[in-house]
Amino acid sequence: MNIKGTAFTTAKVTISQAFGKERWNSFMAKMAEKDNYYKGMIMSIALIPVEKHLFFLDELIKEFFNNDKKQYLIFGKVAAKFALSPGGTYNSYLLTKDLKQFVEVGMPQLWNTLYDESVLTAILEKNIVHIKITQIPMKHIYFEYLTVGYLQQALKIFGKKSHEKCVRGFSKGDNDIYYQFELH
């Protein structure tokens, strides 16, 4: 499984803005010492092997966020804001004014744009968005929390408030992810 480089470049911009470019550069120098993959430039169009990206994220969480895995929720929100806002890479997904189309077509397309394996299905039933992610080759809390944060922010940008409920998730020891988002 590979992850599109936009995930890395979003982290770079966000961390540099929050903590300063010098701290980012220091962190990346440490990463390059730990893994040669991080000695080169990673562009937004790159396909990053999932193992490399998860290693990077785990190190980032340790370095900047005291190893708090819940920060992946914040990462998801920041990524959605960065990508879906006007001028963002994936803002075109919000051009539809139909919430059902955005949820059922746009969200799976966004997932497939970022990841080259696994399956995200999304259904809007009355005021509940059902998100299921299956066939993920590695169980890592990143996939669950980042997606929840991303969808919370995407729905907010779309003009909807939501409250999520975890039905199944890596956080509960399950082999897939299933959340329900109640819209207000």
Give a structural overview.
With 184 residues, the protein is of the alpha+beta class. The protein has a four-stranded antiparallel sheet. A two-stranded antiparallel ribbon has the order 1-2. The longest helix has 17 residues, at 141-157. The model has no long low-confidence stretch (mean pLDDT 92). The chain has two domains: 2-65; 71-183, H-NOX domain. It contains six helices and six strands; from the N terminus they run βααβαααββαββ. Helix 1 packs across helix 2, helix 1 crosses helix 4 (71-84) and helix 4 packs across helix 6 (141-157). A hairpin with a 2-residue loop joins strand 3 and strand 4.
In short:
The chain has 184 residues and is α+β, with helices and mostly antiparallel strands. 49% of the residues lie in helices and 18% in strands. A 4-stranded antiparallel β-sheet has the order 3-4-6-5. It has a two-stranded antiparallel ribbon with strand order 1-2.
What is the architecture of the largest domain at the second tier of CATH?
Alpha-Beta Complex
Q: How many individual helices? A: 6
Oligomer: single chain
- Classified by CATH, the class of the largest domain is Alpha Beta
Secondary structure: number of strands = 6
Secondary structure: helix percent:
40-55%
Percentage of residues in DSSP E strands:
15-25%
The dominant shape is globular
Largest sheet: 4 strands, antiparallel
Low-confidence stretches: none
Write out the CATH superfamily name of the largest domain.
H-NOX domain
* Coarse structural class: alpha+beta
Mean pLDDT: 92
